[in-house]
From TrEMBL:
Cofactor: FMN; Mg(2+)
Function in brief: Catalyzes two steps in the biosynthesis of coenzyme A. In the first step cysteine is conjugated to 4'-phosphopantothenate to form 4-phosphopantothenoylcysteine, in the latter compound is decarboxylated to form 4'-phosphopantotheine. Catalyzes two sequential steps in the biosynthesis of coenzyme A. In the first step cysteine is conjugated to 4'-phosphopantothenate to form 4-phosphopantothenoylcysteine. In the second step the latter compound is decarboxylated to form 4'-phosphopantotheine.
Lineage start: Bacteria, Pseudomonadati, Pseudomonadota, Alphaproteobacteria, Acetobacterales
Protein known as: Coenzyme A biosynthesis bifunctional protein CoaBC
Interval of the full protein contained in this chain: 174 to 400 of 400
Region (Phosphopantothenate--cysteine ligase), start-end ranges: 15-227
Keyword Magnesium tagged: yes
Gene behind the chain: coaBC
Amino acid sequence: EDALFPHKPLSGRHVLVTAGPTHEPIDPVRFIANHSSGKQGYAIAAACAQLGAQVTLVSGPTSLPCPDGVTRVDVTTAVEMLAACEAALPADCAICAAAVGDWRVADTASQKRKKEGGAPPKLTLVENPDILATLSQPGALRPSLVIGFAAETETLEAHAIAKKRRKGCDWMLANDVGTGTNVFGGDQNRVLFLDGDTIEPWSAMAKTDIARSLAARIAARFSSSPR
Ligand code: CTP
Ligand code: CA
């Protein structure tokens, strides 16, 4: 197939991508979110589709259009994102680019919370499921290649190495999202690429170029394995 379609090296592969933020409700009109635009994840989904992959994009709330040739599943919360990912399996490759909310509100109110003249309400938070770690767990449905991102604001390399080990994923792209980097919402990104024990600093480039480089790596990784 590769010989016949050299420009579609991911044909016959199913790639699962998570992207965007999650919204964790406080009450019917308020939520906890983050600054993720979804741009990096959407660019990865588009790049994999361009290489011929069947792509499922599980997306939190963003303002981006669904890339050509990509099947998008819209979700709001982390719990919904995990369920949508599990429903999308099996996949050959999973790429977790979403900025998943780490916590959700324990006692979500069914009606709008009112000020009522008293003290501000106290929110009790509970930890959300870790989608990347869950997809990385050994098992029959584990994608053979699981890729995560690490968003850090300090000691990027050490944090990324530890995070990759903790999650159990195969590759990790670590980016500095500290103040002034303008990664959230911006079009540029700069990552460290971790595979096994090797760490490769990629030069700063457009998110679309990071996506194309990553898709090419994925294609190379799968080039010799049977479909
Ligand atoms: N991730 C996930 N599910 C979560 C939290 C994170 O799938 N509940 C994924 C992200 O999509 C990313 C990777 O895990 O690929 C790392 O996310 P990050 O927020 O950097 O790491 P955390 O493990 O949440 O650690 P912390 O935020 O405390 O640094
Ligand atoms: Ca986190």
